[in-house]
Amino acid sequence: MLYVVLIIAIVLACVACTQYFYLMFLEARSRQERRRVADLERENAELSHELENVQALLEERRRLDVDAWPELLDEGDDPSVR
Q: Which residue range forms the structural domain that includes residue 10?
């Protein structure tokens, strides 16, 4: 009977130890995921800022292109060009 109680105690200790180390693993994994999410959010903010800059440049370029079309059409009406 003493051996059975000793075996059960050792088995329970092993189960508790396994659960403890698994919990430590999950906590470490959670910290890594939080760090990864923070990095992705920072990268997303940088890319959003870059996208806004590019969109502003494209809008400026479109505005300049629209302003240039009447000048190009006026130059095309010159009979000496033909």
A: 2-73
